[in-house]
Amino acid sequence: MSIKGQSFRELRLDRISRHFAGVAALRELDLTIRAGEFVSLLGPSGCGKSTALNCVAGLLSLTSGEIRLDGRRIDVLPPERRGFGMVFQNYALFPHMNVRRNVAFGLEMRGIKGAEAARRVDEALRLVRLDRFGERLPGQLSGGQQQRVAIARAAVIEPPLVLMDEPLSNLDAKLRIEMRHEIRRLHEALGLTTIYVTHDQDEALSLSDRIVVMRDGAKRQEGAPEELYARPLTLDVALFMGFRNVVAVRAQPGIDAGGDGRMSLDGGGGWRFAGHGAAAEGPAVAAFRPDDVELTDGEGVAATVGQVEYQGRDRLADLRLPDGRVVLARTHRALRAGEAVRFTVPAERVRVFSGDAAALPPGDAAALPPGDATLLPGGDAAPSPAGAAVAA
User: Fold this and answer.
1) Per-residue pLDDT for 369 more than 50?
2) What's the domain count of the chain?
3) N or C of the chain: less Cβ packing under 10 Å?
């Protein structure tokens, strides 16, 4: 295989910022990407991830900071001189050009034509399994095939870096899963280095060597997928990584208290459980996933089953506590509304936050029914985070 990403050691984003009309869309992002890595920028709409990608591509200029490739400053270069491949959300294919001409376009812009261009195009189309579709127009292809053409066009120029901006968001669920596998396969087969922008937690977890979670233009946490999934450092990162149950508690250090020690938690109403985190003693917030709620045969917290959603292999159920609070649980049991159950949550699955780590900006909160609010550290009643079941 002759198509390979150009070699380099590292790309360094040094405190890069971008303002629009005085508003910071990206705030002093520090990030080092090593050759061969697949790094995802993960976060909700408006968090700054696409802005960061466009700054790296050269489509947006920096307000401050520097971008360096192996120590050489590149943020002062126009996009075409950076030599990066780009894959867009909307494919950005030329509708009047067939597949071969779309893939060859970047080569032509670099002065590569004739037999060498034809050889590279042929190889790129074989890599994305479209070698029989070279004469078709983009409109004659499915969405997944069009995205593979876009990936071939990015790879054929042998870039040191491939930038992907929400490339799967226009595809249906089945195609997204197939294309995730395809993107990772090509990343490894071609020896690429990839920066991938997504709002989809599953995409980031399945594709990435490293994930950078962003909010309000800033980096909130970065690490391996396993680390972010199991040990989010702040409540907003936990919510984005699927911790949908949030409970206001009083925390007390347990026997092995420390940097990430066990905490004894009082959730009120006789609900006492345990969790792990770096929370201070006193008011705190505990968070856990619906998947981590375990139904028992007699021990644990008493609840009544409310709404049950059938989701194929399992069910998502509202477990209503005697005081009206709701805990979301995912289970294989065929629960019925009104059924009495008991549940526990393993301590190693519960993350505890306090102080700044538990704070959420107003934009991350959704209104609760009247009179239902959670008491976050600091003594202020705050509405529940979006998508979370908050027991207060």
Assistant:
1) no
2) 2
3) N
